[in-house]
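User: Here's a structure from my thesis project, written as structure tokens. My advisor, Dr. K., wants to see whether a designed sequence matches the one we expressed. Can you design one independently, without my sequence as a hint?
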């Protein structure tokens, strides 16, 4: 059994211990210590990393058969019986403590705002999730977020203590414990009381700010809430602020005016697309008249890409017309061949790729445009 020093003082970063067992986990060296500050992957909270007697701790886990034994997976072996100094990666752990404490505060806020029970949490990433048994409702979520931040600014002391299983009914726990026997309880002032084996802050104030980033339907009738807290919330704010400020500079506007500017742009884009389609249709119409006048019923021409489709459709509709239209669209050229299937093998010989039955379309090399048109004009002559 490993003594969990992080329960006594979650703010301690260095400790001394003895290697009591040496083993191997997935091909990596690993050790069991008599005592440790390294938190394992448990209860939704990720494990700590750090150093142990000159080795790096890459993973920490609870032993499968004996949950009370913690295994430290290392990048190099340590000797059994060795006395070692350990240090945890504090910035990483502090973030976990902020996430975890914020999740407790938020879970209680959902209980108060909408009688929402927390069924599952995931604290692996800076954006953590809380899964609730209530349907998605923006008002409840907004209210819960405000309540949670009130609890932060109330600067509530966080305390942990142990209960015997028989005492559980005497305490207004937010949820029932998932372990048996001696149960560890985390109390956040008069705000929240929940069974938990994780590491937490000493005051609710250190968890702020708490920001809900989004939510979605989860399972049947439930909601998954995405949130971030503490340093990670500040980083999220900084990134989004920088992005919005950058956009605002492009629009020569203030950050909060950007949505309005984007709406105007969308409107302009919509109208510009309409105008372009009209222009393309007109261009195709003029080109069709000109090509028929100049070349009759057998037409080979290089045309502007925007007019290709409309022009091909127009010419196809004229009975007895055969044509090859080619439009440069670097790095290749697009073509439509209609009414002259005998030309297709010769186009393929020029590097054309594509297919179709009455109407063959595809791409051919830019450099072969002239040759392709010539081939269509003189199908009998082998070039
Ligand atoms: Zn917890």
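Assistant: Designed independently from the structure alone:
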């Amino acid at each position: 059994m490993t003594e969990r020093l992080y329960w006594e003082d979650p703010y301690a970063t260095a400790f001394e211990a003895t290697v009591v067992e040496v083993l191997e986990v997935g091909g990596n060296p690993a050790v069991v210590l008599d005592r440790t500050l390294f938190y394992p992957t448990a209860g939704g909270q990720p494990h700590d990393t750090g150093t142990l007697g000159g080795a790096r701790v890459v993973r920490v886990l609870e032993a499968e058969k004996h949950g009370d034994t913690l295994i430290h997976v290392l990048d190099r072996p340590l000797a059994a019986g060795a006395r070692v100094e350990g240090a945890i990666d504090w910035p990483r752990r502090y973030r976990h403590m902020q996430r975890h404490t914020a999740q407790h505060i938020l879970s209680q806020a959902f209980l108060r705002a909408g009688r929402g029970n927390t069924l599952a949490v995931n604290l692996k990433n800076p954006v953590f999730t809380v899964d609730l048994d209530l349907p998605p409702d923006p008002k409840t979520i907004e209210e819960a977020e405000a309540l949670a931040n009130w609890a932060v600014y109330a600067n509530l002391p966080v305390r942990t203590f142990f209960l015997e299983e028989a005492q559980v009914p005497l305490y207004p726990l937010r949820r029932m414990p998932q372990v048996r026997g001696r149960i560890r309880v985390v109390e956040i002032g008069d705000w929240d009381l929940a069974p938990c084996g994780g590491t937490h802050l000493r005051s609710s104030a250190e968890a702020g700010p708490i920001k809900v980033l989004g939510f979605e339907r989860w399972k049947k009738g439930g909601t998954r809430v995405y949130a971030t807290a503490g340093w990670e919330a500040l980083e999220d704010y900084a990134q989004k602020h920088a992005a919005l400020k950058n956009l605002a500079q492009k629009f020569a506007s203030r950050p909060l005016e950007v949505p309005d500017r984007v709406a105007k742009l969308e409107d302009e884009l919509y109208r510009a697309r309409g105008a372009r389609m009209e222009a393309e249709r007109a261009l195709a119409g003029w080109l069709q008249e000109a090509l028929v006048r100049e070349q009759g019923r057998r037409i080979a021409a290089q045309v502007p890409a925007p007019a290709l489709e409309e022009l091909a459709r127009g010419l196809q509709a004229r009975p007895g017309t055969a044509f090859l239209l080619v439009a440069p669209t670097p790095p290749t050229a697009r073509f439509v061949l209609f009414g002259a299937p005998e030309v297709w093998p010769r186009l393929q010989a020029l590097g054309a790729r594509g297919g179709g039955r009455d109407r063959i379309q595809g791409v051919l090399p830019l450099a072969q445009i002239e040759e392709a048109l010539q081939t269509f004009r003189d199908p009998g002559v082998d070039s």
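When you compare it with your expressed construct, this may help: The two ends are 88 Å apart (CA to CA).
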